[in-house]
Structure formats: C-alpha cells, structure tokens
Amino acid sequence: MLSGGLPRESICAVIGTYGTGKTTFALQFAYEGLSRGESVIYISLEEREELLRATMAQKGWDPERFGDRFYLLRLDPTDFNLAISSIKSELPALIRSVKASRVIIDPISLFEGLFLDEAARRQEMFRFIEVMRDEACTLVLTSETNTANPEGSRYGLVEYLADTVILLRYVRSAGLTEVHLALEVVKMRRSPHSREIKPFEILEDQIMVYSEASLF
C-alpha cells in the first residue's frame, strides 16, 4: 500500500481513535528499525516505559537485546516546561548524538494540547516540524482523532505537516454484526500509494494488513 515503505527522512502521521493500534504500529516501526541495526528514539507522552517494554516483549520483540540503540523515554505532558524543552530543544541534539534514524512521538496530540492558544499551537508545531526536517531521521507521529471529525487529527494540524498520513479506523458491517479494523493511506508526498481502504488485524506478534482483501 505504501509502494515499498515510508520514504527515508520523511514525516509520517498515524491517526486513529482509541484501540485502533496506533502505539502498536509505532512499536513495530521501532522494532523493524532496531532489527536492521538502526538506532531508534521512542518518546512516549502517555504509556509508561515499563508498559511499552512489556508490550514489545509480549509480542516477541525483545527490546533489551538492542542495548543502547533503543532509547525509550517517557515525558510527563503535565509538566509543561519540561515537555516543551525536551521535545523542542533536547531532541535534535539527542538524535545527532546517538545517530538515530527513526524517531517516534506517541502521541503528538498530547504535546499539541500543551498549547491552549490555537495560534501558539500552530506556530510551535510548524517550528518543530521545520527543525525535525533538518535531522537525518524518519519521524513517526501518532495522533488521536478529533471527536467531531473521525477522519482528522485532534487539532487538525499534523495531517497538513506530515508527508504521509495513515488513518486507522473501525468499520462496522451493514448488519452491525462485526467490527473490523481498517487502514487507509490518505496522503503520501512524492510517492505513489494505494487509495483503497483495507482491513488489518493486530495479531499476537505482528500487525497484518490484508492489502488484497476487501472490507466486506
């Protein structure tokens, strides 16, 4: 569906409501990079570090065997100054020092929510994305959906700033007897991609996207 994968050093937003697998997608993206010998930075603004490591271990993705190539950090989004400083000022230096080629922020919507003023939020997000474009890494941002618009991010910003937007959603059958998880590649700059909505499953050890299947 992505015609081979995410372009290197691009920015991808994975958007979805609760339970659609945003964090699982992000963890698998991290694990694939680690398995290829890359260094990965994973910043969690929601789940505790030990819970994320336990989730990976449960799926057979043992994070401990990668040693100091895997930097899993949790920031407290309620500590405004620390979270802002860490993401805006310290993250670029950390990326360069560890030569990280993959960076994940999960979820970026909690960072956006630190700015109560919409104009300030937009300005800070644009600045952050511009800074990250100067770093030699592929950035994945997860975001919750907007309750009023299940096809958009919570604040309606990341889908415009990202190069690739992947939307995760629930789809109910016509008879309301089944609920399916579905994936859509909404946008992908400078690369051809599928325009179809495809079902996927979160299995014990991986995410499986059925790119040849139809929803019903």
UniProtKB/TrEMBL annotation:
This is Circadian clock protein. Its EC number is 2.7.11.1. Residues 1-216 form the KaiC domain. Keywords: ATP-binding, Nucleotide-binding, Transferase. Pfam families: ATPase. It comes from the Archaea. It comes from Methanoculleus bourgensis (strain ATCC 43281 / DSM 3045 / OCM 15 / MS2) (Methanogenium bourgense). GO terms for molecular function: ATP binding; protein serine/threonine kinase activity.
